[in-house]
Amino acid sequence: MDYARERLASDFAAHASVLPATNPTTGSKPTIVKDLFDVRGRVAVVTGGFGQLGRQFAATLAERGASVALFDRAGDAARLPDLFGGCASRVHFERADLTVRGEIEGALARVAKRWGVPHVLINNAAIDAPPDAPAAETGPFEGYPLASWQAVLDANLTGAFLASQVVGGAMAEAGRGSIINIGSIYGLVSPDQRIYEYRAADGAPFTKPVAYSVSKSGLLNLTRYLATYWAPRGVRVNTLTFGGVFRDQDPRFLKGYAARVPLGRMAREDEYNGAVLFLASDASSYMTGANLVIDGGWTAW
Ligand SMILES: NC(=O)c1ccc[n+]([C@@H]2O[C@H](COP(=O)([O-])OP(=O)(O)OC[C@H]3O[C@@H](n4cnc5c(N)ncnc54)[C@H](O)[C@@H]3O)[C@@H](O)[C@H]2O)c1
């Protein structure tokens, strides 16, 4: 016991000189217990912020006192009061195509003028093959169109690369920040094509396309690269890997999906908000380069 105590004291003494006096993400004095998940006063950019999950993340941060800018190529500022209610004054919309660097630069300049350099960037915008995608896009791998491959990689991977360059670069200059890259179980393991087989019965066979998986795998190493590259500048970078979210899918799909998940169901759209708050706040101040998997256990089987 005494030995353990002595050891702790000597470890602490050895580390005292290298421990940062202020929190590397925020520049604030470290807090031990209080306000671990506090994001008040922080500025966040959520790409694809008008989508199903982007809205959830924006509301989670804005409700807790952060100012949130939605960067999306689709959306409408007039809908903000409806979508965000009492915290809509802390949510701002910037129309931007994430595949165009100049559009991200313009959006960031306006946000920085309004609120200052962001503390949090959530690379959330992405495209996937929607159910009504042309047959060629959801057919066999051998005929998957090059143009579809490029469009998905552009939106999902190049978009995150460009947003990280522009917004992450500004954070690095400010000496603090947290980047959250939104991944998918399909970036860790292959899609299970069997859960889409019911589509053949409807005369519209469906192969989950390869581009989405590859784009999400690419994000994992964008995360690791930037985590090590920007660690000396105080910017943390992590991936959040999600399982599928319930959105009124075909009951046959839901049944097949649920059978693949130890928790036996898809996620509710609000079930990733806690992880976003964790990564946006000082609760995760020693975490970088990591991948946090929230998938109901899909990848445990
Ligand atoms: N919904 C799921 O089941 C699920 C599961 C795992 C991971 N994810 C990931 O979560 C994230 C959010 O998914 P979602 O279901 O909310 O998607 P969504 O389609 O509802 O929203 C995506 C948003 O991104 C925007 N966007 C796409 N390309 C863009 C571009 N080039 N420039 C600007 N905006 C662009 C769209 O306009 C849209 O508002 C994605 O990264 C997705 O891959 C979703």
Could you write a compact summary of the structure shown?
This protein is an alpha/beta fold. It is built from nine helices and seven strands.
Please explain how this structure is put together.
With 301 residues, this protein is an alpha/beta fold. The protein has a single domain (32-194, 209-244, 266-295), classed as NAD(P)-binding Rossmann-like Domain (Rossmann fold). The protein has 9 helices and 7 strands. The protein has helices at 2-16, 52-63, 80-84, 101-115, 146-174, 198-201, 210-230, 251-259, 273-280, and strands at 43-47, 67-72, 91-95, 120-123, 177-184, 235-242, 291-294. Helix 2 (52-63) links the parallel strand 1 and strand 2. Helix 2 (52-63) crosses helix 9. The longest helix is centred in the middle third of the chain and has 29 residues, at 146-174. The radius of gyration is 21 Å and the shape is globular. The chain starts with a helix and ends in a 7-residue tail after the last strand. Residues 1-18 have low confidence and may be disordered. Residues 48, 50-54, 72-74, 97-99, 124-127, 155, 159, 182, 184, 242, 244-245 line the site of nicotinamide-adenine-dinucleotide (NAD).
